[in-house]
Amino acid sequence: MNTPGNRGTLLPFHLPSQAKKSDPASEDNPVNLDKSDQQKPTTPVLSSQVPTTLRKKTGRPQERGEISESTANERGRFPVRPDQGKKLNRESEVWQKYHRFLEADQAGPGIIAHDHTIDHNIVVIKEIRFHASESQRRHLYKVLNEKPTNIVCLTDLFLNPLSVHAVYEPLEISMHHIQATSRRDITEIDLAIIGKELLQGLHYIHSELGIVYGQLNPKNVLLSYHSCHLKLANVACSILKPQQGDYSTDIAAVGRLLVSIKEPGTSGRNPDSLQLECSDDVGELCRTFIQSTRNLSISNLLKHEFLQKFPGVGRMRMFIFRAMECAARHPVNYTT
User: Fold this and answer.
1) What is the pLDDT of residues 270-320, one digit of tens each?
2) How many whole angstroms from its chain centre is CA 140?
3) Mean pLDDT score, 176-199
4) What pTM value is reported for the model?
């Protein structure tokens, strides 16, 4: 059928009405069924006949106070951005438990804080920007639970997705301070104490954790007036960040540290030196022990005859007290 003004345009005889109700009688009559089939349009479906499921995507059920079923299903299919508030809460958890009141240097920059108990226990908190793997987490908790004698104790841990807050015990002094205040008074007996304590700390790190310490120097060896034990600092950093060198590098560093304590001039001229050149009060047994750190294992060094001179760590107390008194008169301020 042609209409005026629109030549060649074919219009359907009948447009189905959406509001038309089905007649039960027509459904049972086969003649009516045949007639309805003949009246089906041959033109494409108009926009009013687009399925209603397409209009659901453009709808905005939130404005009508409704939540569509398709929206609920999409939430399960697509990843959801993590709640930033929860991430911040995890990172601030450490400061909910501890109150920071000072920044200081304990084998590197740290935050001095106290807990909220009646005792106000003092701790040193260090943040390490690093993602801890499962094996690294196990090592951290191992040190936390076992508290080895010659490692600066971890008292608490806060593990976040991108950082670790390591909470350490506070220690008053380092070997760097003792070296500066008591170098002339250190004898080979004191070198035996220092050597044995350091080897025992390294033995734990190598055998129990299976990692390289890689940070042995006078500033990273801490002491307390109460226990007098020499302790290796920043073990969490060694666990999280692989260090350069191997076990033999750690062991040789013990010999180099003993040389730097007794003869800082020799160490300054040759940092890798394992040879005492100027000390007349040091016997051949001590010199041999220092040189043996180049090629002997920790187990063999701990059995060395020189370490039989070890009288106990209490002798270190006078050096610690002198260094503390000097530090009180000449404080060093640390600022970030």
Assistant:
1) 988 899 888 788 899 999 999 999 999 999 999 999 998 788 899 999 999
2) 10
3) 92
4) 0.72
The Cα–Cα gap between 286 and 302 comes to 13
With a CB cutoff of 8 Å and minimum separation 6, the contacts of 41 are: 12, 13, 14, 15
Q: How far apart are CA 267 and CA 158, in angstroms?
A: 39
Q: Is residue 129 left, alpha or beta, with left meaning phi > 0 and alpha meaning psi from -120 to 50?
A: beta
Contact (Cβ atoms closer than 8 angstroms) between residue 128 and residue 164 = yes
Sequence-distant (≥ 6) Cβ neighbours of residue 222 within 8 angstroms: 106, 107, 152, 171, 173, 174, 175, 230, 231, 233
- Which residue in 125, 57, 128 sits closest to 97, CA to CA? 125
For strand 231-232 and strand 164-168, is the pairing parallel, antiparallel, or unpaired? Answer: unpaired
Provide the pairing of β-strand 231-232 with 221-223: antiparallel
Strand partners of residue 206? none
Q: Which residues on adjacent β-strands are paired with residue 156?
A: 167
- Express each pLDDT in 72-88 by its tens digit: 444 444 444 545 555 55
DSSP state, residue 221: E
Torsion angle (degrees, nearest 10) of CA 167, 169, 173, 179 = -70
Strand order in the sheet with 221-223: 173-174, 221-223, 231-232
Please state, in angstroms and as integers, the Cα–Cα distance from residue 35 to each residue in 21, 199, 212, 276, following that order: 17, 101, 90, 115
Q: Quick one: CA dihedral 120, 127, 216, 264, positive or negative?
A: negative
Tokens representing 234?
Answer: 């920043």
Question: What CA–CA distance (Å, rounded) separates 216 from 67?
Answer: 62
